[in-house]
Amino acid sequence: MNGARFNRSFFDRPVLTVARELLGTRLVRGESGHRLAGRIVETEAYDGTGDLGCHARAGRTARNASMWGPPGHAYVYFTYGMHWLLNLVTGPDAYPAAVLLRAMVPEEGEGEMVARRGGRVGPALTDGPAKLCQALGIGSDQDGLDLCAPGAPLWIEAGTAVPDAQVVTGSRVGLNSVPEPWKSIPWRFRVRGLAPGLRGAIAHGPAEAPPPQPPR
DNA sequence: AGCACGATTAACT
DNA sequence: GTTAATCGTGCTC
Questions:
Q1: Which of the nucleotides in strand C have any atom less than 7 Å away from a protein CB atom?
Q2: pTM of the model
Q3: What is the CATH number of domain A8-191?
């Protein structure tokens, strides 16, 4: 059976907690009869106006408005003139924090993902934040989408728990002009040996352990 | 109204 | 390892 849609209480916690616990969960795009899905294997946390690596550092703008809304919504933004990136909003309403989804291991609908990615196959399919969005067809239309709303075409459900021994942390990617300590603070989380590359993917098949902090 | 730049990717040396 | 592609956004003038 497929897991239940994670509810708002999962996202209504500190962004670092959510970024860690999203590892191993399943990101699903679509509806009950048509699913594209994969295991999340890399995330990054962005925490409020005080985090100079976070888009919220400049205050609320039209672009980052979603991040200031309630937890459990998507914050999707456009960058480098061609790429869309997906974040999941965390923490209480009006507190601007979100988790950037950087990589996943495809599990369902891989053929459609390949088509959306221009025929590319293998690790390059979903091993980057913009690749993941392209593979799942995520763009401006999904900005502000509530992942916790019944019927919404994007959600998180239980996957396989990732033990601490398999979690690698490091500095966030691409913050070249961000001052320290924000540039180097270890708020990037990934599953050991995965992303980049996605080789040795989390085993497919039924989940054998409950997700961390299962929602209810 | 103009401009510098970006939570990236893919192609190339 | 280096760099072009490409344009919305937010800041400066």
A1: 5-11
A2: 0.91
A3: 3.10.300.10
